[in-house]
Amino acid sequence: MTGTQLEIQLIAAIVAIACAIPGVFLVLRKMALISDAISHSILPGIVIGFFLTEDLNSPWLILLAAVTGVITVVLVEAIQKTGLVKEDTAIGLVFPALFSIGVILIAQKANDVHLDTDAVLLGDLTFASFDRISLGDIDLGPKSLWVMGIILSITIGLLVSFFKELKVSTFDAGLSSALGFSPVVLHYGLMSVSSVTVVGAFDAVGAVLVVALMIAPAATAYLLTSDLKKMIGLSILFGVSAAIIGYWMAHLLDASISGSMTTVLGVIFLMVYLFAPDKGLIAVMYRQKQQRTEVSLLTFLLHLNNHTEESERHINHLNEHINWQRVRSQTVLDLAQKNNMITITDSIVELTSKGKEFTDLALEYIITNKDEKIEHMKDDFFLFRG
Amino acid sequence: MKKIAIRVDDLTVAYNYKPVLWDIDLTVPEGVLMAIVGPNGAGKSTLIKAILGIIDPIAGSVSIYDKPYSKQRKLVAYVPQKGSVDWDFPTTALDVVMMGTYGQLGWIKRPGQKEKKASLEALEKVGMLPFKNRQISQLSGGQQQRVFLARALVQNASIYFMDEPFQGVDATTEIAIINILKELRKAGKTVIVVHHDLQTVPEYFDWVTFLNVKKIATGPVKDIFNDDNLTKTYGINYKVAVNQ
Predict the structure, then answer these.
(1) DSSP-assigned states of every residue in A21-63
(2) Is residue A290 domain-shared with residue A160, that is, in the same domain?
(3) What per-residue confidence (pLDDT) applies to B243?
(4) Chain B within 8 Å of A227 (Cβ-Cβ)?
(5) How much is the pLDDT for B241?
(6) Which is deepest, A69, A140, A190, A266, by most CB within 10 Å?
């Protein structure tokens, strides 16, 4: 690995972390689309800033563009407040308008400089390490590393200082306001940080993909944890993993680095969406199937409890009378047998004493509406789950 | 004469220039357990939010023990409607209660052992200690309401505002909550509750405010909780079975 490669990965990782942190709060505030709006509408700010400073990494350009980002939020909220359109419509109205101004400005004035529409949309990390800062003869490293490093340090500093305020205002804006932590101040603080981060990351990953870096890690982490601090930690982990893996994928495929990073993020999300232990698709489906079987078992046991006559307790009767498919009745029978709740002699099913006890308790809880207790009772009785 | 805990003068609140609360004058003496009743859209929640500065009135003023609310925040605890927050938020019951301590801490300072201990005690008081590490979406509606109540208790305030604390809770929780509110009153606190169930007003509360955009009446339940005021507030001849 060469020094340049290492530097690019370092920049990518820092961009990923800087995006992941505000991303967590945007996702929790159901404002994911706002990051999309900001990332597009800062374009005119960047272009105008570029005309004035002629330097894509100038702090003035970053501040100017970030102000455009905050203006976007103000405009969206102003339109929304009229009550004539909903928030998503307001977002859809504001950012294309600002973005198109930026596109026209580029086409008109910036044709001969390093600021073209491709770079704006997708960014370019490959050349990030060529633009360097030096002090006299000493090389201090790539400029964008410094810019993003400073933005990240500020973000982390603000996060650590105002973590509790951000948490309470995100969870319960009313309480936050009553306690004296103005939700408006915190909201615009978060919007400013997001805007600055987007502008800083823009050069590296472009307007479209910066959204993925903000939203995807947080959305993935959300599926895995119910602790805000862990959610932030996991988001950072996913962002950095995607940055490193994405870099090497791009290297292998000779493809765009930002594109590969985003693809990796998508794959990580898909994996977690499928396999997350609690909220994942497969876990949910498994739980539903298990619950279905357990409800069937309960129905079956109650039926046995109600009928002493042998004709009602014949195995074939399950298929006919209770109207289950053969596979399902087999599953239910197996489950009941495994848990020693029934015995089968000559195809006649009989409740064991354990089965009887279980059924009586269940009946009592059903009558008294104590659904939670049934769940507990299942845990006590079942050695094997369906 | 008892001290005045809350004084509201000429308060008017409007959404999009339509008044939701109109020229409200209200004084609440210290140490009462007061219900705010009125039909849907009467501005009950809005009144609380305006007193707490969560929404800005277009006219009028509010004072808590003779000073503006912004100077008296630490004397006041607030329980918003349960439906006003996202219960899927990644946090635990204990953590939600800890949020009640944030006001005393102020900006930047973080909660420590002292705040944690107080929060655990508050959870204990509402019978939710066994659920302290439970993710809040895993709690039932009644349990969520208890957590909110614990969060208000931990604020250790003089005045408690509660927005429909009995909404969507079972009978056991309702009794548990009202017992805690009565205990608060006994300790000399002032408790203001937005309430929907007129049947229970005489049983639960000693003070009541009738509200329907304007203030209809306010005073001791035994003096003013009558058909006349109910009819003025609800617009129909409202007969209630008063359990007294």
Answers:
(1) HHHHHHHHTT-HHHHHHHHHHHHHHHHHHHHHHS-TT-HHHHH
(2) no
(3) 43
(4) yes
(5) 45
(6) A69
Residue numbers in chain B where pLDDT is lower than 70: 1, 236-244
User: Are A228 and A320 in a shared domain?
Assistant: no
Q: End of a domain among A243, A278, A313? A: A278
Q: Is residue A120 predicted with pLDDT exceeding 60?
A: yes
| Residue-number span of the structural domain to which A42 is assigned | 3-278
Please indicate whether, in this complex, the C-beta atoms of B49 and A170 are within 8 angstroms of each other.
no
Specify whether A316 is located in the same domain as A245. Answer: no
Residue A41's CATH number: 1.10.3470.10
pLDDT of A332 reads 80
Strand order in B18-29's β-sheet? B18-29, B4-15, B59-64
Q: What is the DSSP string of A339-354?
A: TT-EEEETTEEEE-HH
pLDDT of residue A195: 94
Q: Is A225 part of the contact surface with chain B (CB cutoff 8 Å)?
A: yes
**What single letter denotes the amino acid at residue A97?**
A
A360 shares a domain with A230: no
Residue-level pLDDT at A371: 65
Number of domains within chain A: 2
B24 pairs with which residues across the strands?
A: B11
Give the three-class secondary structure for A140. strand
Q: CA nearest B27: which of B53, B58, B1?
A: B1
> Which residues of B fall within a CB distance of 8 Å from A232?
none
What is the C-alpha R_g of chain A? Answer: 29
- pLDDT tens by residue, A308-367: 777 777 777 766 666 566 566 777 888 888 888 888 888 788 888 888 888 888 888 777
A373 in reach of chain B (CB within 8 A): no
Residue A178 in any domain: the answer is: yes
* Residue contacts between A and B (CB atoms, under 8 Å): 77
State the average pLDDT over residues A114-136: 74
> Is residue A137 located within the same domain as residue A183?
yes
CB A64 within 8 A of CB A48: yes
Q: Check if the beta carbon of residue B128 is closer than 8 Å to that of residue B147.
A: yes
Residue B184: enclosing H or E segment and its boundaries?
helix B171-186
pLDDT at B244: 40
Residues A162 and A191 in one domain: yes
